[in-house]
């Protein structure tokens, strides 16, 4: 009996060590970030697919992407490559005679590091053939690079105050955008997209993305279950989302909509940031946390798939067929100093 017990213990420990070794090899060859691939995305019900229409492309071809989630629980479309007709969207935008605004904040070293590439790639891919106004918010107006603009495209420089910390720059964005949307920006543009400067366009980014309110699925979190999403959990914060709440985690690098809808969004976020500051709080992901709270309370009319804002650091994913916007390498030590 004693001998059998000894053999059983040896077998147990050998199996345990072998299993741990295999787990280490698995994590080495299959990084933790790729464990997301084991999480199913879900699919849009067929009954919902046939009902969804887009404000610019008409009937959406959601059945072209059967292996990804193409709609939300509130029946808003999630736009993936192959689900829309870009030519129809272009014609509809021209028929409506739209002016589309694109805002970007280029403060401190972010201006010299990223702005030129951002604008040059936008001229190549962003709303091609449409009337566009770029609004560059910066404390260095004289340093904004001269970029050759196509017909019907303008660039406006909007001076802002320099903030002491990069977090304050991020959090002041909502207040600044709200004020601008109540002024010239709001008078000139019909739809506005707000983007981070540390990225560049890599594919056509057209009117198919436009809607009354537009949210961007975060490339690092779009496959993860709700309980793993990095919502603000401090219940004292105006950005707090309780466990069990929330739909998706949205990226503040891209959001947009009509002027009226964006005024409501930026007012909500600016007010929440101000309340938190008065309480001595700072949400985990700053203005992005408040953006996610807004979209939990007020569902976006259209959601963009991660193809519209992708990070090469994630690696290749079968569902990411045609990235439209790439994150630039994050060199925080250089640009946030």
From TrEMBL:
<dbReference type="GO" id="GO:0005975">
    <property type="term" value="P:carbohydrate metabolic process"/>
</dbReference>
<dbReference type="GO" id="GO:0016020">
    <property type="term" value="C:membrane"/>
</dbReference>
<keyword id="KW-0472">Membrane</keyword>
<keyword id="KW-1133">Transmembrane helix</keyword>
<dbReference type="GO" id="GO:0001962">
    <property type="term" value="F:alpha-1,3-galactosyltransferase activity"/>
</dbReference>
<keyword id="KW-0735">Signal-anchor</keyword>
<dbReference type="GO" id="GO:0006688">
    <property type="term" value="P:glycosphingolipid biosynthetic process"/>
</dbReference>
<keyword id="KW-0808">Transferase</keyword>
<keyword id="KW-0812">Transmembrane</keyword>
<dbReference type="GO" id="GO:0005794">
    <property type="term" value="C:Golgi apparatus"/>
</dbReference>
<feature type="binding site">
    <location>
        <position position="196"/>
    </location>
    <ligand>
        <name>Mn(2+)</name>
    </ligand>
</feature>
<dbReference type="GO" id="GO:0031982">
    <property type="term" value="C:vesicle"/>
</dbReference>
<keyword id="KW-0328">Glycosyltransferase</keyword>
<comment type="similarity">
    <text>Belongs to the glycosyltransferase 6 family.</text>
</comment>
<feature type="binding site">
    <location>
        <position position="110"/>
    </location>
    <ligand>
        <name>UDP-N-acetyl-alpha-D-galactosamine</name>
    </ligand>
</feature>
<dbReference type="InterPro" id="IPR005076">
    <property type="entry name" value="Glyco_trans_6"/>
</dbReference>
<dbReference type="InterPro" id="IPR029044">
    <property type="entry name" value="Nucleotide-diphossugar_trans"/>
</dbReference>
<feature type="binding site">
    <location>
        <begin position="105"/>
        <end position="107"/>
    </location>
    <ligand>
        <name>UDP-N-acetyl-alpha-D-galactosamine</name>
    </ligand>
</feature>
<keyword id="KW-0479">Metal-binding</keyword>
<keyword id="KW-0464">Manganese</keyword>
<dbReference type="GO" id="GO:0046872">
    <property type="term" value="F:metal ion binding"/>
</dbReference>
<feature type="binding site">
    <location>
        <position position="218"/>
    </location>
    <ligand>
        <name>an alpha-L-fucosyl-(1-&gt;2)-beta-D-galactosyl derivative</name>
    </ligand>
</feature>
<feature type="binding site">
    <location>
        <position position="198"/>
    </location>
    <ligand>
        <name>Mn(2+)</name>
    </ligand>
</feature>
<feature type="binding site">
    <location>
        <position position="288"/>
    </location>
    <ligand>
        <name>an alpha-L-fucosyl-(1-&gt;2)-beta-D-galactosyl derivative</name>
    </ligand>
</feature>
<feature type="active site" description="Nucleophile">
    <location>
        <position position="288"/>
    </location>
</feature>
<feature type="binding site">
    <location>
        <begin position="196"/>
        <end position="198"/>
    </location>
    <ligand>
        <name>UDP-N-acetyl-alpha-D-galactosamine</name>
    </ligand>
</feature>
<protein>
    <submittedName>
        <fullName>Alpha 1,3-galactosyltransferase 2</fullName>
    </submittedName>
</protein>
<feature type="transmembrane region" description="Helical">
    <location>
        <begin position="12"/>
        <end position="31"/>
    </location>
</feature>
<dbReference type="Pfam" id="PF03414">
    <property type="entry name" value="Glyco_transf_6"/>
</dbReference>
């Amino acid at each position: 009996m004693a001998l059998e017990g000894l053999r059983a213990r040896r077998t147990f420990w050998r199996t345990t060590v072998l299993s741990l070794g295999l787990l280490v090899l698995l994590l080495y060859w299959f990084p933790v970030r790729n464990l997301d691939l084991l999480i199913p995305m879900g699919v849009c019900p067929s009954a919902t697919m046939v009902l969804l229409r887009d404000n610019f492309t008409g009937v959406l071809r959601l059945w072209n992407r059967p292996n990804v989630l193409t709609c939300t629980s509130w029946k808003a479309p999630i736009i993936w490559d192959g689900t829309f007709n870009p030519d129809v969207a272009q014609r509809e935008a021209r028929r409506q005679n739209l002016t589309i605004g694109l805002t970007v904040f280029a403060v401190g070293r972010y201006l010299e590091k990223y702005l030129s590439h951002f604008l040059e790639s936008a001229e190549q891919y962003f709303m091609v053939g449409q009337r566009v106004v770029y609004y560059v918010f910066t404390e260095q107006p004289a340093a904004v690079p001269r970029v050759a603009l196509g017909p019907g495209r303008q660039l406006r420089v909007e001076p802002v105050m320099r903030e002491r910390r990069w977090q304050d720059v991020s959090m002041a964005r909502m207040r600044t955008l709200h004020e601008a949307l109540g002024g010239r920006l709001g008078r000139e543009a019909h739809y506005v997209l707000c983007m981070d400067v540390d990225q560049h366009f890599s594919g056509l980014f057209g009117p198919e993305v436009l809607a009354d309110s537009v949210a961007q699925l975060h490339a690092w979190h779009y496959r993860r279950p709700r309980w793993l999403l990095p919502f603000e959990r401090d219940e004292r914060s105006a950005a707090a989302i309780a466990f069990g709440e929330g739909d998706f985690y949205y990226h503040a690098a891209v959001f947009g909509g009509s002027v009226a809808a964006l005024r409501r969004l930026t007012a909500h976020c600016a007010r929440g940031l101000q309340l938190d500051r008065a309480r001595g709080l700072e949400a985990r992901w700053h203005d992005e946390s408040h953006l996610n709270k807004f979209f939990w309370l007020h569902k976006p009319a259209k959601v963009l798939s991660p193809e519209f804002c992708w990070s090469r650091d994630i690696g290749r994913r079968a569902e990411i067929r045609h990235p439209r916007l790439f994150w630039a390498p994050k060199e925080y030590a250089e640009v946030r100093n």
